[in-house]
Amino acid sequence: MIDVILVGNPNTGKTTLYNTLTGKNEHVGNWHGVTVEEKYTTYSYQGHQIRIVDLPGIYHTTPLSFEEKVATDYIYKNRDKLIVNICDASNLQRNLYLTLGLLELGANVILFVNQIDKKPIRKVDYAKLESHLGIKIVYGNASHKKEVQRLNQTILDFQVCDNVKYRLPYIKNIDFSPLKTLKNAEKLSIFQKIKLLEDDEMVKSSLNIQENFDKVEQIAQVKYKYIDEIIGKCCDRQLRVYGKSKLDKILLNRYLALPIFLLLLFAVFYLTFFSLGKFLSDGIGFIFDKILFSPLSNLVVSKFGAESAFTSLVQEALIGGVGSVLSFLPQVALLFFFLSILEDSGYLARLAFTFDDILSKVGLSGKSVYTLLMGFGCSTSAVMTARNMEDKNSKIKTGLLTPYMSCSAKFPIYTVLGGAFFGANNIFVILGLYVLGVVIAVLLSYIFEKTSLKSKQQSFILEFPPYRAMNLKRVFKLLWQNIKSFITRIASIIVAMNIVLWFMSHFTASFKFISDQSSSISLLQTFGMILSPIFAPLGFGNWGAVSALLAGLVAKEVIVSSIAMFNGVESANLSALQSSLLVSTSAVHFLSPASTLSFLVFCLLYFPCVATFSVLLREIGFKWTLIGSCIEFLVAYLSAFVIYTLARSIEYFGMAQVLSVLFVAVLIIVSLLFLRKRLKKKSCPYSDHCGRCKR
Question: What's residue 343's pLDDT?
Answer without folding.
Answer: 73
